[in-house]
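S.,

Sequence below, as promised.
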Amino acid sequence: MSFLDKFRTVAQESAKNANISSPIPDNNASEDLKKAANLLRGFVDKDTNEAGFDNIIPPDVLRQAKGLAIYTVVKAGFILSARGGSGVVVIKKEDGQWSAPSFIATGGVGFGAQVGADITDIILVLMTDEAVETTFIQGGSVTLGGGLSVSAGPVGVGGEVGVSANTQATNTSSIFSYTKSKGLYAGVSLDGTVLLERKEANAAFYGRAISAAEILKTMPQPPEALELYNVIEAGLSREL
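The prediction came back faster than expected:
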């Protein structure tokens, strides 16, 4: 069995044992949308969040959000280590509606002596227009960290966030992160993470070659993403 085959097997088994979404992209993009909805539900619904209010995204954060990246990542090690995952991104359009989803992936390789896997569900809340433009509208790939800062987002009942004009200019806290990890490796660092546009998945779902910018800015909401939109709205309307 090749290294990639081992990685895929360990990733799928680890996700099943951890009772969270598989990080391996599904051949059916509609299933990826269902995964994204279930993943996000765990961060906005205290009844399905194991940590209760301690890891809930406050409604105020969602109200001010310019976009959401929702994905699962696996880090697996067997002499070589690898990181890979998949998910979707949606942005808030000028009319206040959430965009059609664009499919994304993340990946990387390294060296490590540990054998096993860590599965992490990740929500990136994009708080500025520049964060949206730099990460996903431009297409291709983007590396987190550096010019676009990523910081742990406020949580719980009293979580509040203020995005000022100065924040817009300096990119301070331009991306809030929320994570839920189970497995061998403790914690997760998002700096240096590469997010990729899944062009083939987008083309298969929308029926033609299409850029992330066109999807996020012009395409109507597909019915396959209704569950995801409902989860977002539930998070926005949740009573504290």
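Residues 1-8, 158-172 have pLDDT under 50 and may be disordered.

Coffee later?
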